[in-house]
Amino acid sequence: MHLYITGTPLGNLDDMTFRAVDTLKKVDVILCEDTRNTRKLTNHFEIGTPLKAYHDFNKESVEDQIIEEMKDGRTFALVSDAGMPVISDPGFELISRMQAEGLDYVIVPSGTAFTMALVASGISSYEFTYFGFLPKSRSKKKSKIQEIMTRQSTSVLYESPHKIKDTLVEMNEIDPGRVVSISREITKKFEQHVRGPVGVLLDKMEKEIPLKGEFVIVVEGAAPAEETFDIPIKEHVEVLVKEGLTPKQAIKKVAEVRSLKKQDVYDEFHDIKK
């Protein structure tokens, strides 16, 4: 076997598998994003295999050498800083090249943050789309969030601690009543999962949800508009208020879903007769 695509723990070293330790010990070279991070792992498990940097900034320049060494009989393990390699990390290019060259590889699995967050969210997982990290460009990010908020299936994405609030603000402007789940520090000491309407979670940021660690956001799919038309407007607003929205937020959402004027929904909710 030329390459072992090897999963490592997300944060808790007790999640390292026997197979992963054995694999990293027996290969000739470990390809890793950051040799400093991987060295902590290898030192902990007394793995003396040489490390070689393989990341977004050098992957093109080292790929030819790696392929040639594989053809000469050297074996490699590909790891990321945490979790499964290739997921929102470099590696698919190398695997594609190996397929073209007829070189073999296997997967040594571990968990991934987005699947764990999806499991913990309590949101439907029968159909979902993984978006990874949002675009860095503000306009492209805004467009991507709009796409996510209009999808009728579940969406999962990663976000950094210094961008999480801005992302929730964008979602809140589109649909403050949309149920989302926020997970952080998965498998670590301060692991946290919080679920609720995005407008409510936005108020909890910093107060109850520290802006530390990497975040995974799970977004409930948008319900088809016709599904909410079988109850009176006033009752529709009251249901959203019970879910945690303010009356103002609920009125806005009902107006958007039903394609009505906010003033008409306001009047109906407050029993204002014209």
From TrEMBL:
InterPro entries membership: 4pyrrol_Mease (IPR000878), 4pyrrol_Methylase_sf (IPR035996), 4pyrrole_Mease_sub1 (IPR014777), 4pyrrole_Mease_sub2 (IPR014776), rRNA_ssu_MeTfrase_I (IPR008189), SAM_MeTrfase_RsmI_CS (IPR018063)
Cell compartments where the protein resides: Cytoplasm
Lineage top rank: taxon: Bacteria
Keyword vocabulary terms for this entry: Cytoplasm, Methyltransferase, rRNA processing, S-adenosyl-L-methionine, Transferase
Record's keyword annotation contains rRNA processing: yes
Reactions performed catalytically: cytidine(1402) in 16S rRNA + S-adenosyl-L-methionine = 2'-O-methylcytidine(1402) in 16S rRNA + S-adenosyl-L-homocysteine + H(+)
EC number assigned by the record: 2.1.1.198
Molecular function in Gene Ontology: methyltransferase activity
Root EC class: transferase
GO biological process: methylation
Domain Tetrapyrrole methylase: 2-199
Function: Catalyzes the 2'-O-methylation of the ribose of cytidine 1402 (C1402) in 16S rRNA.
Recorded family membership: Belongs to the methyltransferase superfamily. RsmI family.
Name listed for the protein in its UniProt record: Ribosomal RNA small subunit methyltransferase I
Annotated source species: Salinicoccus siamensis
Gene (name only): rsmI
